[in-house]
Amino acid sequence: MNNLIEIKGVSHAYRTRSGPLPVLDNLNVTVPQDEFCAVVGPSGCGKSTLTRLVSGLMKPDRGEVWLHGERVTSPRKTVGMAFQNPVMLEWRTILENVMLPLEIVAPQMKRAEAEARACHLLEMVGLKGFEAKRPSELSGGMRQRASLCRAIVHRPDVLIMDEPFGALDNFTREDLWQTMRDLRAAEPFTCVLITHDLRESVFLGDQVIVLSGRPARTQYVLDVDLPADRTIDILYTPKATEMLHVLRDQIRIAQGRDGGH
Amino acid sequence: METLQKIAVPLAAIAAFLAVWELIVWANGWPNYVMASPTDLPAAYVRFWELFLVMGWQTLWRTVLGLGLAVIFGTLLGMVMGFSRLAREALYPLLVGFNAVPKATLVPVLALLFIGQHDFNTVLMAFLISFFPIAVSVGIGLSTLEPEYRDILRALGASRFTIFRKIALPKTLPEFFGALKVSVTLAFIGTNLVEIVSPHGRGLGALFKSGETNGDYPLMFAVLIALAFLGIVLYYAVVLLERIFAGWAERPQG
C-alpha cells in the first residue's frame, strides 16, 4: 500500500518575543492511502501546527511534507479541512455553505451538479430538509455536520480535522463519530484527525499517534486492530479498553508524569 | 396589521411631538418672531414651495454625492487599514485627529482654496465629515476577521482577492451599513454647514440663512423640518439597501 502522507523529519519553531519556541522536533508520520490517522498528545504540543503543515498553510523550518508523492509547499485543492469552530458563513444557506469549495476548486462545474453533490452529502449526514436554513437556525452538532460536508464536497484526497468534535456534548460527539464512519464507508478518503479524546481516536482511527510534549516528536504509534464497521459498543470490549489504557499511559509519559498514578 | 403598526406608530410619535411643540409655544404665549409653532409652517411651505423644491434638491444631490465619495474612499481606506497593520498604526492617529477638528473651521479654508466653487466645496465638506465612520468600521471588520474564516478558502489555494470577495467583504457588510447610517446624518450636517456659512450659498442652508436675515422664523423652522424629512428619507434608503445586501445579519426576534 502506498503512503499518501509522508512527514519526514519535520521541525518547526514559532518566533516569539522571548526567542524561538520549538513546537515540532524531527517528527515522522506516514499515513497509507484511505487510512485514518488519529493524533493525540498533551495540550499545546503542536498538534494544530501539524494540520497547518499538511494542508500547506505553513511551511516547516526543516524537513519535508509529501502528499501523493508531491512535496507540499503551498495549499492545494486536494485537501479538505474542518476545525473545532464549524466556521459557517451566515450570509449563505447551509446548502450554499457546503457548495463553497466547489466554487473555488471546480468553478466550471454546473450549479445543478454542484447542488446535487452537496444535497447528497447533507442527506448522508442527516441534514435533509435543512438545505435552505441559515447556519444560526441549526444546533452546534448540525453545524458541525454541515462543516464536514463542506470539507469533503470536492472529494479531497485528504481530510484534515483539528478537534472538530471538541466543542460538542458527549452524545452528539458519538453520533458524529458514526456519521464520520459512514461517510468513509461510502467514499473512502485519507484522514488526519487531531483530538484529545482517546475514545474518539480508538473508535475512528486505524492508527493512533501519540505526540510527546513540546517540542513534539512521535512518541508512540498504536495500530488499532479493530474491524472497520465499528459501533460504539466496541469501546466497551476488553480489547478497546486495553488500547485506551495503553494510550492513557503514553499521554501520562508525554505530560512528563512518568508512572504517576 | 403588522405593517399598519409599523407605519402608524412612528406617525403617531411625530404627531405627538408636533402637538407638544405647539402646546409649549401656546402656553408661553410666544409670538412667531420668537418661536414658530407647527401651525405656522404650512403657510411658509405654501408661500415658498418652489424654493423648497429647488433648494431641497440642491441639498439632496450634494449630500448624496458627498456620501457616495465617502463610501468609496472610506471603504478603500478601511481596506488598507484592515489588511495592513503598518497602515493601521500609521493612519489611526491622523484620522482621529482629523475627525476631532471642528469642520466649521474648514469652511473658510475651503472657501479660500476653491473660491467660488460652491457646489464643489459643499460636496467636499459632506465627504470630509462622513468618511471617517465608514473607514473605521470597514478597517475593524476586516482586521478582526477570524483566521479560520480565511483558512477554509486559503487551504484550497484561493487567491487573496477571492477570499476578500467571498468571505471578508460579505462578513464586513453589517458593520459597513451601521457606519453608513451614522454617515448619512453627518453628510447632511456637512452640506448645510457650507450652505449656511458661505455667502450667496444655495440649498436649504441658504434658505435658512435668508429666513434668519429677514426675521422670518416660520421659514427657518420650515427649513429645519424639511431637512429632517430629507434625513429620514435618506436614512431609510440606507435601511432598504441594508435589508437587500445584509438582511442575513438580522436575527428573527423572540
Describe it.
The complex is a heterodimer of chains A (261) and B (254). Chain A is of the alpha/beta class. Chain A folds into 2 domains: 1-78 and 159-165 and 191-261, 3-Layer(aba) Sandwich (Rossmann fold), CATH 3.40.50.300; 81-156, no CATH class. Chain A has 7 helices and 10 strands. Chain A has a 6-stranded mixed beta sheet with strand order 6-7-8-3-9-10, with helices on both faces. In chain A, strands 2-1-4-5 form a 4-stranded antiparallel beta sheet, covered by helices on one side. In chain A, a hairpin with a 6-residue loop joins strand 9 (207-211) and strand 10 (218-223). The radius of gyration of chain A is 19 Å and the shape is globular. Chain A starts with a strand and ends in a 7-residue tail after the last helix. The mean pLDDT of chain A is 87. Chain B has 254 residues and is an all-alpha fold. Chain B has a domain at 52-144 and 171-246: MetI-like fold (Orthogonal Bundle). Chain B has 10 helices and no strands. Chain B has helices spanning 2-28, 41-47, 49-83, 85-100, 106-113, 118-143, 147-154, 160-197, 203-213, 217-246. Chain B starts with a helix and ends in an 8-residue tail after the last helix. The mean pLDDT of chain B is 89. Chain A binds chain B through residues 55-57, 74-77, 79-81, 83, 85, 87, 89-91, 100-101, 103-105, 134, 136, 150, 154, and chain B through 146, 148-149, 151-158, 162, 166-167, 170-171, 173, 246, 248-249, 251.
